[in-house]
Write a structure and sequence with these properties.
Blueprint lengths: L1 H4 L7 H28 L8 H11 L11 H10 L7 H8 L5 H5 L1 H22 L6
Helix pairs in contact: 2-7
Length: 134
């Protein structure tokens, strides 16, 4: 962001820096929960490596702005695999895109939902887990 700042007209100020720290924390939580949920899927899916590879391919889509994709991809990257909340929506704060303000505000809510979902899936997985060993 520091390198890009010299090439674009963004002056974050104190509010922007606080927002950056705030979103870094919540975006890290979101990403960690997504990866944790994928790993927890191995309780039910024997060959979960394929699932990790599929999600890794989908994850590469967030290297570009979500608004270049069709509506279906945007919905998937916002709701089912909320990678959009890791990169696209937080960056919209600095570009003042009004139509994405609700998503910008929802970042902590998405993090909380994913934390609760991760905990639930982990507990369910532990209940159904059977050791492959003797």
């Amino acid at each position: 962001m520091i390198a890009a700042e010299s090439h674009i007209d963004i002056i974050p100020g104190m509010a922007g820096l606080l927002y950056l720290v705030f979103t870094l924390i919540f975006c890290t939580m979101i990403y960690t929960c997504i990866m944790f949920l994928l790993s927890a899927a191995s309780f039910w899916i024997i060959k979960s490596n394929a699932l990790h590879e599929l999600v890794g391919s989908i994850e590469r889509l967030i290297e570009y702005p979500l608004n270049i994709y069709n509506l279906t991809i945007r919905i998937i990257l916002t709701t089912i695999l909320p990678f959009g909340f890791i990169s696209f929506y937080p960056s919209q704060y600095f570009f003042s895109f009004e139509d994405n303000k609700p998503f910008i505000v929802c970042i902590p809510v998405v993090a909380l939902i994913l934390i609760l979902l991760s905990r639930f899936v982990w507990k369910k997985g532990l209940q159904t887990y059977q050791s492959p060993g003797a």
